[in-house]
Design a protein that fits this description.
Distance between the termini: 73 Å
Radius of gyration: 30 Å
Protein name: Glycosyltransferase 2-like domain-containing protein
Keywords: TPR repeat
TPR repeats: 324-357
Structural class: alpha/beta
InterPro entries: Glyco_trans_2-like, Nucleotide-diphossugar_trans, TPR-like_helical_dom_sf, TPR_rpt
CATH topology of the domain at 4-172: Spore Coat Polysaccharide Biosynthesis Protein SpsA, Chain A
Pfam family, one: Glycos_transf_2
Low-confidence stretches: none
């Protein structure tokens, strides 16, 4: 019978080593563990599994330690796993038969299977990629590379067969959001060291471009991505498409390339990889960054479509980790188009991928909040589990902030009765207009902990209660800026003046008040902004209102800025475009036509206005106004 050795290198892997060893212990003849200096219980746990433990002095060279492990193995075949990897339990029975089947064929030296990268143990799928972790034990097969190491046979690629995920899957939990940044920083430093020594391997440029991109050094990322594209042009590797993604994303961040140059790069990428969802996704985000929302939507939908039927075994696919955000972005553009039904569908898809996505939840509720409460509850129960305390807490917290009273009461009762939570939720009380009851709670928490979030909520409760005298109950640690904003709101002091120093606090309070206060209270608060802050600051206030779907208030603030401005045409054109967009969202097409016309008159030349004109034309019921939109597009496009 063919002998199989499992090899694992470790350092402080006590949290995950058992799962890795458990996954292979019944199908291998020996387990080799090479420890590089653990200070936790890793070695003790490994020994409990009957492994052969060796100790190796770490020298910043992953290939060296892996090759040391290979030298200790006695089997005919090697299964080489990292401690944070494990073979799927339902597939482990297939490993030995696969190896036995190819063992006699000397032309095959390795088995390539799918690696699925998870967000922590049993977490959501982040990405998948082909991986060669099973290969013959041979002195001719060795790892190379201090980092991102890979095997070669006499310095040439190893011949391998592909085994699909129905037969074999390896799960990897190590690249979670909490660990990936540090690992990339470590790997980039090792690659830089090799580069200084004149060592350039097949994927050196790609990995450096990725490292610099993750560090926000976009110029370097672009330089190495371009080198990687040339270097990998003839390779058929799992990551050969990735430099294009790094290049497009870096260009999007820097905004130093012309639209023609950037679009040419997108087209080149799609010419080479037309069926890869990530390329479509990168193009979508570039289009969105330059205001081409309709083109962005088309590319996003194409990304979703190509991912649904993606079956390229030989290439990675990282679309999974950003699918929730892609669905959310699709939903947002549909909302911009006033297509609520389509937006609802994609908010649901986003939440199905990531149920704690607060932005997607807020978008969903904004669409369904005026439906019958029983219908809203029924709908939410298809997305969230009543038996899951985390789900119920998420619903209570977010429904509290979004003021969905009857629905909130339903879930709060579950939290209280099913999970024995007797503590009153402060935000819930605010949602139920019981600010008199909640202010003492927030005030006490703020006095005790000095927390800025509690300070904000205490001040919001004070404003909603319309009891300025309560400000003294917050004691001396209340920000002076808070006292000034409260005095301005209630006009309790003569000659009160707010300055730019108070503006960040004003914005934070506004974000809470938009949801928790009444429309009259919000209008009163916005009047403070008009009285005391600059045109630029008021534009920021209008943007906040726009983001929260308060289109009437946003329009009023944009018009205030237009009347107040002494700015040049560029600023006026922006303000008129935003005012027109508010009217469009409110389906006031006559107002939209008027303000869009003014924006174009003052030289507005950003792409987004032409999408707004087209959408307005499609939705406007009045032929005379439709003709205005049509004429504006024809006159000003290009």
């Amino acid at each position: 019978m063919t002998k199989i050795s499992a090899c694992i290198i470790t350092k402080n892997e006590a949290m995950c080593i058992s799962r890795c060893l458990q996954s292979v212990k019944d199908i291998v003849d020996e387990i080799i563990v090479v420890d590089t200096g653990s200070t936790d219980a890793t070695v003790t746990i490994a020994e409990q599994f009957g492994t052969k433990v060796f100790h190796y002095s770490w020298g910043n060279d992953f290939a060296a330690v892996r090759n040391y492990a290979l030298d200790q193995a006695k089997g005919d075949w090697i299964i080489f796993l990292d401690a944070d990897e494990y073979i799927a339990a339902e597939r482990i029975k297939n490993v030995r038969p696969i190896i036995e089947k190819v063992h006699g064929n000397r032309k095959i030296d390795a088995v390539r299977c799918q690696m699925k990268n998870l967000e922590g143990v049993n977490g959501s799928l982040r990405s998948s990629n082909p991986s060669m972790r099973i290969f013959r034990s041979s002195k001719a097969i060795r790892y190379i590379g201090k980092v991102h190491e890979y095997i070669l046979k006499r310095e040439k690629p190893v011949s391998a067969i592909n085994v699909d995920s129905q037969m074999l899957v390896i799960y990897h939990t190590g690249y979670s959001k909490t660990t990936i940044t540090e690992k990339i920083r470590r790997n980039t430093a090792l690659l830089e060291e090799e580069l200084k020594q004149g060592i350039v391997r097949r994927l050196t440029y790609y990995y450096l471009s990725d490292g610099y991109f993750q560090a926000g050094e976009y110029e370097k990322a672009i330089d190495f991505a371009q080198k990687a594209i040339k270097d990998m042009a003839q390779m058929n590797r799992d990551c050969d498409y990735k430099p294009y993604g790094i290049l497009i994303e870096s260009i999007t961040h820097l905004k130093t390339f012309s639209e023609q140059e950037a679009i040419a790069i997108c087209n080149e990428a799609l010419g080479r990889f037309p069926h890869h969802p990530e390329i479509w996704l990168h193009q979508a985000y570039y289009y969105r960054s330059i205001g081409w929302y309709e083109k962005s939507l088309t590319s996003l939908l194409k990304a979703v479509e190509t991912n649904a039927c993606y079956n390229d075994f030989n290439r990675s696919n990282d679309f999974y980790q950003c699918s929730s955000m892609a669905y959310f972005d699709i939903a947002q553009i549909y909302e911009m188009k006033n297509q609520s039904a389509q937006a609802l569908d994609y908010y649901v898809k986003a939440l199905q991928q990531e149920k704690s996505n607060q932005a997607a939840f807020g978008g969903l509720i904004s669409i369904i909040r005026n439906q019958e409460p029983a219908h809203v509850i029924y709908f939410l129960n298809t997305l969230y589990e009543i038996a899951d305390e985390r789900d119920i807490r998420f619903l209570v917290e977010n429904l509290s902030r979004l003021k969905v009273k009857i629905v909130l009461d339903y879930y709060h009762k579950i939290l209280r009765d099913k999970f024995d939570d007797k503590q009153l939720n402060g935000l819930m009380l605010l949602s139920n207009c019981k600010s008199d009851e909640v202010f003492p709670i927030f005030a006490e928490l703020f006095r005790k902990h000095g927390n800025y979030g509690m300070e904000l909520l205490a001040v919001i409760a004070l404003l909603i209660s319309e009891k300025p005298q309560w400000v003294d109950l917050l004691e001396a640690n209340l920000q002076h800026s808070c006292r000034k904003v409260v005095a301005a709101y209630f006009q309790t002091e003569q000659d009160i003046q707010l300055s730019a120093d108070e503006f960040p606090l004003f914005c934070d309070l506004l974000r809470e008040l938009v949801y928790l206060g009444s429309s009259k209270q919000t209008e009163t608060f916005l009047q403070i902004g008009k009285c005391f802050f600059s045109e630029k600051a008021c534009t920021k206030i209008a943007t906040i209102l726009l983001e929260h779907g308060s289109f009437f208030c946003a329009l009023d603030m944009y018009l205030h800025c237009i009347n107040k401005t002494s700015s040049e045409a560029k600023q006026l054109s922006d303000l008129y475009c935003d005012a027109g967009y508010c009217c469009y969202r409110l389906k006031d097409f006559a107002g939209a036509a008027s303000y869009f016309s003014q924006a174009l008159k003052f030289g507005f030349n950003q792409n987004r206005i032409f999408d707004f004109l087209e959408w307005s034309y499609q939705q406007c019921p009045e032929e005379a106004i439709k003709e205005k939109f049509k004429m504006m597009k024809a006159l000003h496009r290009n």
